[in-house]
Design a protein that fits this description.
The relative contact order is 0.12. By secondary structure, the chain is α+β, with helices and mostly antiparallel strands. The protein has eleven helices and 14 strands.
């Protein structure tokens, strides 16, 4: 690691002030993305602002058809929440499949969404469910939040405080995971609410998470795996790496989408 200055924030306002003050500063939530990149010397922030003591950013509330999760809530809390399992089981199941127990006990939903790792799971849930990302400054719809690879609409000094997920009629998430890291080589989240269907893909796009509009249009007419079995995902714009090339990822997107539709509840 490179040398950095460590700060422990006592409030959201203090964390935001420190982040705005230091152009090369980074906020630390669970550290499941930031710390590995620092260890590999892929990131060299001048300052680390630790938000670990901000207990007011932890908690889950289900009310009026919305699951609201505060930013510092750990994955394990989402996975084991009786309220989430009842209202939005697809989200609880997604959280239960993130990484390994060590990652789930340290990683936070806010950190995952803020980093927008192209192989992370939560961005797909946000996009498919039409979530709203709340910050210390504003509320941003998921469609406007994820801009590109590791890029979001967050500005300097802006901090995610919570994420609101509208409860759908049916939803499911299917992931073809890397056997070592358990990151998504391809993950597909499908959600249906009334006549609206949204399909979000993670792990595959060279620009990060994206919506599969062709699947959405077909499923809006007929919400069945059969409705999308002959729709092919284009290879253009998909990742190719040591784990899977673009052709294989394109195939997997169709497979995972059909499994998600069949398992949606």
């Amino acid at each position: 690691m490179y040398a950095f200055t460590y700060h422990k924030a006592g409030s959201v306002a203090e964390a935001a002030s420190l982040a705005a003050k230091h152009d090369d500063g980074k906020l630390l939530a669970g550290g499941m993305t930031l710390l590995p990149t620092m260890k590999q010397r892929l990131a060299q922030p001048s300052d680390i602002i630790d938000m670990g003591k901000l207990d007011d950013l932890r908690g889950i509330e289900v009310k009026d058809g919305v699951v609201a999760i505060k930013a510092m809530t750990r994955h394990v809390a989402v996975a084991t929440s009786a309220e989430v399992m009842k209202a939005l089981p697809a989200l609880a199941e997604l959280a239960a499949g993130i990484g390994d127990p060590a990652v789930r006990n340290r990683g936070t939903i806010g950190g995952s969404v803020a980093n927008n790792d192209p192989a992370a799971d939560y961005p797909a849930a946000c996009l498919a469910l039409g979530a709203t990302i709340h910050t210390n400054k504003r509320a941003v719809k998921a469609d406007d939040f994820f801009i590109g690879l590791f890029e979001t609409a967050l500005e300097q000094g802006e901090i995610i405080t919570s994420i609101s997920f509208p409860v759908p009629d049916k939803a499911n998430y299917q992931k073809f995971r890397n056997p070592a890291s358990r990151y998504a080589i391809v993950g597909v989240f499908v959600a249906k609410k009334g006549g609206d269907v949204r399909v979000a893909v993670t792990g595959a796009g060279d620009g990060g998470v994206f919506r599969q509009k062709d699947f959405e249009a077909a499923l809006a007419k007929d919400f069945s795996a059969k409705a999308i079995e002959n729709i092919k995902q284009a290879e253009k714009g998909l990742n190719s790496d040591i784990h899977a090339d673009a052709e294989y990822r394109a195939h997997l997107i169709g497979v995972m989408a059909r499994r998600a539709v069949a398992a949606a509840k």
